[in-house]
Amino acid sequence: MVFGIFLCLDAFLYVFTLLPLRVCLALFRLLTLPCYGLRDRRLLQPAQVCDIFKGVILVICYFMMHYVDYSMMYHLIRGQSVIKLYIIYNMLEVADRLFSSFGQDILDALYWTATEPKERKRAHIGVIPHFFMAVLYVFLHAILIMVQATTLNVAFNSHNKSLLTIMMSNNFVEIKGSVFKKFEKNNLFQMSNSDIKERFTNYVLLLIVCLRNMEQFSWNPDHLWVLFPDVCMVIASEIAVDIVKHAFITKFNDITADVYSEYRASLAFDLVSSRQKNAYTDYSDSVARRMGFIPLPLAVLLIRVVTSSIKVQGILSYACVILFYFGLISLKVLNSIVLLGKSCQYVKEAKMEEKLFTPPPTSTPGKPPSKPQSRSKLPQGLASEETLSASVTSQPPHPKENIIPLLVTSNSDQFLTTPDGDEKDITQENPDLKHRSAKKDLLEIDRFTICGNRID
């Protein structure tokens, strides 16, 4: 989980550090295009087109957020009763997951529409409607996260701390809703990624709460120590709930703790494969698909809060801002180097180096989907093995004559919820099949959907 949090941090810092530089380079290419001439069919590379769209969406949503009054929202929420605020906070958590589920699909649809080959027949509504849909999504999701941060800020500033206690007890409701359910390894992998995304989002929300409170107290350092116990209490409750939840889930479903090293290796494989020269997608998109973490709305809100809380006046202040920006770039580069080294180590320990040279299962903006190609290039001897390693996000396998007879008697629901013990029985005769199917499942599964298949 710590490794996953640093992956989210790397994708989040990318929006503030490298994305502005990439947008400037893409715009510089557009301005100097007459000097180079039209050597290629495209004015810009597909990655540069996606970078420009991300930058324009960030700028538009940032100016739109100026029309949302944070102070009025705070006093409006503060006037509500405790029980009503508790219900609102639960509804906001559900809405945040729903927004994240289709948000990446909206953004991927925009990237694919803008970068698809010209000779391809267009069967969609066009780039401009997709762009407005993406702007609307990022704006609404940023407002939703702002309401979450405001509710948490009200809980911190309440006199008797009752609302904060109730909101912390909401974490323990997760234990009741998940511990006594049947889990398979792939489902546990999805839940682990969701927990990583939720914890990182809560850290950013706590940062926003601290910034708003410090602004109200004129940046008095003594008030920071007043907020520090509550922040530690919220973080400790989240960690305790996750430990208890995962411990009982692995106990009741007979799943060994070694499965978390496989999850970590799968995340490391995503990072290493996205750093190749022929990588199809940017790493931030890979993290978004795997964990459901979309950094754009969170970045818009954080920029809005920082610019409204901190006033920059004078040459010395601008010099400090420039130094802080270079510090963020240094942190991003250092974090990326350490993560890449650790990821290579985890991939080698899991013996997954040979999979780096195979095309990824998802299609990407600017390239045709690779799903049919991956099926056509499979060796004949591995047909039944690839059938076993089908993803949860794809359609369930149907009984066929060439599949192992033990799988013919089980329907799709039983196969998708097979516990760890039954997998041992299925692959007892062929240990290589067990190793291949376990690794392949974790590599092909996405947090919500394989976005490229839906776009096409």
TrEMBL record:
Residues 424-433 have a biased composition (Basic and acidic residues). One of its GO terms (biological process) is ossification. It comes from the Eukaryota. One of its GO terms (cellular component) is endoplasmic reticulum membrane. The chain crosses the membrane at residues 12-31, 52-68, 131-156, 293-310, 316-341. Residues 386-395 have a biased composition (Polar residues). It is found in: Membrane. This is Transmembrane anterior posterior transformation protein 1 isoform X2. It comes from Chrysochloris asiatica.
